[in-house]
């Protein structure tokens, strides 16, 4: 298989969060001398605190602080021993109180993340399977990575999608003893709930189903004894349900607690649960504070505290309902999410609220899809009614200001989140008096000379090349290769070109750029369901082309305005076509573009490197060899040139029906052997239309030495080459017989013959495309790094593929 450099998820996240940091909205430092829970001091400014995850404010309770201080005085700052050997003296008291709260013994862990790593690999057996809710907490998803190493199936369903869950249960039921569904009780970003009652009905229907709830955001503020949202619904805990609670966040101390009524499972986890055995236990101060908090939870006081918080949540909700602010997933939890769609709007709104004296968090990728950015607001018992009223007034004033400042609209926000409109549709576009926009759906409607002057010198998307692409892929009977075409040209009022590009809309495989092992697994599923995990995508350029698909006149003062106008236009088209993803691709790395696209709701990913030969001018084979590096020259002279005579090389502008069929089969050989870029297989009709187009020619290699092959002088290799009118030669597709012995270096020979033919025709530039850059570099190709910017309606496919085993 051809190897490519796949995108690194960590790099993408790092770049996104680095932008948020530069905007002054994350990685901040509190400057307070004393915390009260109501205020925070940041950059010398006093702010009302609406970002805590301690909804009852128990960390400031005197009884917890005094217990922690006393424990340090008596027992020191830590008890550095594994709990497997001996527990701290205060542990027994805490565990007794936890059992009183829940009615069953609990397992206390250092924190919920380490707890998941302790519990999940122990609870899930090799014969089990796991289904993850798309929005279940990262710590749960990460712990499940360990299960894949044991061959345990781990799959993902869309958020709260019970139909999809049931389909997956049916799929796993014949091969798994137990099927674990893992979800949050209360989700940390939008504050919405797991559909527990419906899940219980599924449990009645499928005896294999086990439920695992991370309920750390439902803890303390809900339920009898503050045992959380999930247990408040369940009332009693059946053996097929496990709950994860927290001793930090709203509980006010530190640590986590895992609750199961399955005694055997609980004992197995306590006997050997990874971090429970090999990590240090909670510090004495944390145990003591948790024990003091448990006393409050076991008293009538917890109900009073819950009611106080519920009153403030209700007050916030009543104020919000009187506004047109787009709150996502309205509910009665302490967590609220105000949608902004674009990250830049979120940054600006956070900054505006800072200036007004309110601290909130931006909700950003990867916690939410990049175009579902917004403001995460939490209400705590420490917030006063006047603080809450002031925040809502500030939001009502500054939200439309932030929208206007970032060329955003309430309509765009509603559209991005799929929520009802709060006001009439008003699209804010750059005044047409300053920019002229031409939008067409066929290259025939675009002036040929203008297009070729801007984008004509590369790949197969000069004007004539796009005529071919439209003929081959527009209105195709093959749904996998049926594309619509969309052309944009933007100029200033004097008709000076500012921007030109084209998009295609069609089906993409979601694993287009995934690791090969992921694509191999998905292709097995596509034997039964050819369109499994595919999406409708509006993408710059096309899946047939590569290169710089977007001309930008960067020297013009209105170039940025032109880009923003393009983004507004394609965003509307993206929505009208109901595509799942919008892709801007094949850009050079550029700091200014990175910031602009990020702020408009795109994330950057690395594209496979492309390869070109810029100056293919030479007169003899010796001169060509001299252009190569010493190492590549040695490789060429010893491994490629001597075998040229083993082939009969024929260059044709027309192919017979038999040659088309043979060439197509050779193309499919390569396609089926290469998942580095996993797109759909083109139909044979595409190749027939190549033959009928005067801009295509074909380099055929017949092997003269047929000692190990059945046919005499069989066709063993073919290059499908496009002759760009801008004097660029494009060996666009390749076909090979993998039965040809390795000594003939068939692939390298095909590359060399493409270079040789381009030289004969006087083409100085060769676009070699993506993949196999190592081989192309040996023949003088220059590797060109490229990036793309994507905007997906949700992260499901990406995260689903993240649950699959890779090699």
Automatic annotation (TrEMBL):
SUPFAM superfamilies in alphabetical order: Acyl-CoA N-acyltransferases (Nat), PLP-dependent transferases
Domain (Aminotransferase class I/classII large): residue spans on this chain: 66-395
Keywords in alphabetical order: Aminotransferase, Transferase
Cofactor dependence: pyridoxal 5'-phosphate
GO function terms (MF aspect): transaminase activity
Protein name: Aminotransferase class I/II-fold pyridoxal phosphate-dependent enzyme
Organism, as annotated: Flavobacterium zhoui
């Amino acid at each position: 298989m051809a190897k490519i450099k796949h995108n690194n998820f960590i790099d993408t996240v790092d770049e996104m969060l680095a932008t948020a940091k530069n905007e002054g909205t994350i990685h901040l430092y509190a400057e307070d001398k004393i915390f009260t829970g109501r205020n925070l001091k940041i950059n010398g400014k006093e702010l009302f605190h609406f970002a805590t995850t301690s909804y009852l404010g128990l960390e400031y309770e005197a009884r917890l602080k005094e217990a922690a201080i006393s424990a340090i005085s008596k027992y020191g700052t830590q008890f550095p021993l594994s709990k497997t050997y001996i527990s701290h003296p205060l542990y027994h008291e805490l565990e007794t109180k936890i059992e009183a709260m829940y009615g069953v013994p609990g397992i206390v862990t250092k924190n919920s993340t380490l707890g998941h790593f302790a519990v999940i690999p122990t609870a899930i057996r090799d014969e089990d399977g796991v289904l993850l809710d798309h929005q279940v907490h990262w710590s749960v998803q990460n712990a499940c990575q360990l299960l894949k190493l044991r061959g345990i199936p781990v799959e993902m369903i869309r958020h709260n999608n019970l139909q999809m869950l049931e389909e997956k249960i049916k799929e796993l039921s014949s091969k798994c003893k137990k099927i674990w569904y893992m979800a949050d009780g209360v989700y940390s970003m939008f504050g919405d709930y797991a559909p527990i009652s419906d899940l219980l009905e599924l449990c009645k229907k499928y005896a294999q189903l086990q439920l695992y709830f991370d309920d750390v955001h439902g803890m303390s503020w809900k339920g009898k004894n503050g045992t959380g949202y999930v247990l408040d619904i369940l009332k009693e805990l059946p053996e097929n349900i496990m709950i994860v609670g927290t001793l930090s966040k709203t509980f006010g101390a530190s640590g986590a607690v895992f609750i199961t009524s399955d005694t055997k499972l609980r004992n197995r986890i306590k006997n050997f649960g990874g971090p429970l055995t090999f990590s240090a236990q909670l510090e004495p101060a944390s145990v003591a504070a948790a024990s003091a908090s448990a006393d409050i939870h076991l008293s009538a006081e917890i109900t009073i505290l819950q009611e106080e918080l519920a009153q403030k949540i209700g007050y916030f909700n009543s104020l919000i309902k009187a506004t047109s602010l787009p709150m996502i997933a309205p509910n009665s939890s302490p967590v609220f999410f105000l949608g902004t769609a674009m990250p830049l709007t979120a940054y600006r709104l956070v900054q505006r609220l800072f200036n007004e004296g309110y601290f909130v968090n931006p909700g950003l990728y990867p916690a939410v899809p990049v175009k579902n950015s917004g403001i995460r607001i939490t209400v705590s018992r420490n917030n006063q009614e006047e603080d809450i009223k002031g925040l809502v007034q500030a939001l009502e004033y500054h939200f439309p200001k932030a929208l206007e400042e970032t060329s955003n609209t309430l309509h765009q926000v509603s559209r991005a989140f799929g929520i009802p409109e709060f006001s009439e549709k008003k699209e804010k576009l750059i005044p047409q008096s300053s920019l002229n926009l031409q939008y067409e759906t066929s290259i025939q409607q675009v002036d040929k000379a203008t297009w070729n002057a801007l984008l004509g010198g590369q790949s197969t998307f000069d004007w004539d090349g796009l005529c071919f692409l439209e003929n081959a892929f527009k209105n195709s009977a093959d749904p996998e290769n049926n594309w619509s075409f969309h052309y944009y040209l933007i100029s200033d009022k004097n008709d000076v070109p500012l921007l030109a590009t084209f998009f295609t809309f069609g089906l993409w495989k979601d694993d287009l750029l995934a690791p090969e092992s992921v694509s191999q697994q998905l292709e097995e599923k596509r034997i039964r369901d050819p369109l499994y995990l595919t999406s409708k995508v509006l993408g710059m350029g096309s899946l047939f082309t590569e290169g710089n698909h977007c001309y930008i006149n960067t020297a013009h003062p209105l170039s940025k305005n032109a880009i923003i106008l393009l983004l507004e236009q394609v965003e509307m088209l993206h929505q009208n076509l109901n595509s799942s993803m919008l892709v801007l691709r094949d850009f050079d790395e550029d700091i200014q573009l990175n910031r602009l696209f990020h702020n408009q709701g795109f994330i950057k990913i690395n594209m496979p490197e492309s390869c070109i030969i810029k100056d293919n001018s030479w007169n003899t084979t010796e001169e060509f060899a001299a252009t190569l590096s010493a190492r590549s020259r040695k490789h060429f002279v010893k491994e490629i040139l001597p075998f040229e005579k083993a082939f009969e090389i024929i260059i044709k502008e027309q192919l017979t029906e038999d040659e088309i069929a043979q060439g197509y089969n050779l193309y499919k050989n390569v396609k089926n052997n290469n998942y580095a870029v996993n797109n759909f297989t083109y139909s044979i009709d595409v190749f027939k239309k190549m033959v009928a187009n005067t801009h295509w020619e074909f380099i055929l290699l017949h092997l003269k030495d047929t000692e190990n092959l059945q046919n005499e002088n069989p066709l063993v290799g073919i290059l499908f080459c496009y002759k760009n009118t801008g004097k660029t030669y494009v060996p666009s597709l390749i076909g090979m017989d993998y039965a040809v012995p390795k000594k003939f270096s068939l692939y390298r020979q095909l590359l060399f013959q493409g270079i040789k033919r381009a030289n004969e025709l006087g083409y100085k530039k060769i676009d070699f495309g993506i993949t196999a850059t190592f081989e192309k570099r040996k023949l003088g190709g220059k590797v060109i790094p490229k990036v793309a910017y994507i905007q997906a309606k949700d992260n499901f496919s990406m995260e689903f593929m993240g649950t699959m085993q890779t090699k």
